[in-house]
Amino acid sequence: MKLYKSLSIFLLFFICLFANVSYADDNAKVNFTPLFTPLSDAMGAVKQNNAKQATDDLVIIEKELNNIGKDTNRQSTLYQETLTALNQAKANPNNDTLKELSIKLYAYEKEQNPVDYSVKRRQFAKNITPVLNQLDTAIQEMGKGGDIEKVKSVYQNFNKTWVANERVVRNTSMAHYGKIETAMAMIRVGAENNPPNVAMMTDNMAMLKATIDSYNQGDELTEVKNDKVDLAYGVELLKQGLTAFKNNDKAVAQAKLGEFIQIWASIEGDVRTRDAKLYAEIESDVPVIMAKGDKPSVDKLANLIERLQAINPHARYSWVDSMLILLREGLEALLIVMALLTALTVAGQPKDKKWVMAGVGTGLVASLVGAWALVRLFPALTSGANREALEGAVGIVAVVMMMGVGAWLHSKSSVKAWNAYINKHMGVALSTGSMAGLFGLAFLSVFREGAETVLFYAGILPSIAMSEFVLGIAVALGVLAVVAVVMAKTSVKLPIPLLFKVLTWLIYALGFKILGVSISALQLTGHLPRDVVDVPSVAFLGIYPSVQGLAVQAVYVAVVVILAVWARQKMV
């Protein structure tokens, strides 16, 4: 156990080497949890056609919102708009009115709990202005017969600076961010044309400079919302462009790819969070494809479309992951409890099984309370930008726990070790002269596994479809029921050591995946840096092409190997 703790601390330390933690002043912040939680409940009630329950939840929101409004300083225009949206939702609770309420409520929360980006904005202006002026000068010289290769070189330098500093713009003004990205892409298109399209480069350079100047001056731009714009819509635009290229209709193809570039800022998050390499390729290659339209470009476009279609923007975990968590945790508790019941039967004390069952029942209730708290709190905790960061942080904690669980399983994966474990705990329980020992062991076995299960599920819940989540739990419960019946009815011992050995490596594999997904989530929220490398993404295994993520996973594998060697030596 000391070895496990040391290795776990080392893993956490290694992760922290890459950390880029930022702090925000929480003074005088308004707590919106009491509003987001019933809003989530109301949305669930509407899906179940329970308008009365939805209305009751909206009444709770109204009460909490009025409490905030008691401070007249909080009664802004957004406050009034949120009240209006709330009244409309109360009058007609449906998906549309609740969606509008959630948008207004989230905007009001951002207004009341602002993040101070002033320092970062000043730093952005300081970093971007020199390279922006260099690019402007290079394009102006191009209009006077300058060198296109110099323009491309200066553009690459500008793009590198932009990528390193763009997050502050994306977080504070998506309208500016989208216009900047579009102008940059069109400059690239103009530069890649043969001959170079100087007019396109000049016009978009003017737009780029004006937009960045507007952002640096603190101007506000209104982002144009379009409900039909999503990843599927973007892929369809690329498909239409591909078809046009194949039909030698370059004008239509360029128009479709140009439209894709304009909406890219609105949909890039679905790609960036799942395949950083593909994200970088799209930003780099689509403008070139649009400009050239030759056979290699068309082939490249087809490849990008195929990889984009493989992305599922709604889930990164499957029912198998959900099943493995409950199966591993539930099976451990079930085996311990069934072993206790069997031992009591052998000892001729069947009447004392009630103490074991009481411990199981109490442990289940305690675990359900924890699960209920998770469901109630999770919508508020994951609202807005905190979602990915929470998933990443909880996921890493879960991985460390999984390493401990795996080490424990491995150390019990021999007949001798398992029998010694059961005899030790039974001896302690029966030697007390009281069944309180059995009650306590049963309770702790169930509650500990239940609490761990809740934490593990917290790490994957934001990124798994509810149908997959429920299916995994149902399958795991079915397997556990079969195991319980076999043990209870036949008194035939399952090959527990072999079973534990298999589960050990299953839990290690799941930990590897969750670690990769968690590191990626923390990178995408700015808590860890990310250096993309040229390796394929394998979302099913939690492998993403970044130096930091792959390095941490390599350390994880090394720690697992050390734990396996330690467990094997301990069994000798």
From TrEMBL:
InterPro entries according to UniProt: FTR1/Fip1/EfeU
A GO MF label: ferrous iron transmembrane transporter activity
Cell location: Membrane
Signal peptide positions on this chain: 1-24
GO cellular component, one term: high-affinity iron permease complex
Topology term for the membrane: Multi-pass membrane protein
Keyword Transmembrane: yes
Transmembrane segments: 330-348, 355-378, 390-409, 429-448, 454-486, 498-522, 542-567
Keywords on record: Membrane, Signal, Transmembrane, Transmembrane helix
Protein family according to the UniProt entry: Belongs to the oxidase-dependent Fe transporter (OFeT) (TC 9.A.10.1) family.
Protein name: Ferrous iron uptake protein
Organism of derivation: Moraxella lacunata
Taxonomic path: Bacteria, Pseudomonadati, Pseudomonadota, Gammaproteobacteria, Moraxellales
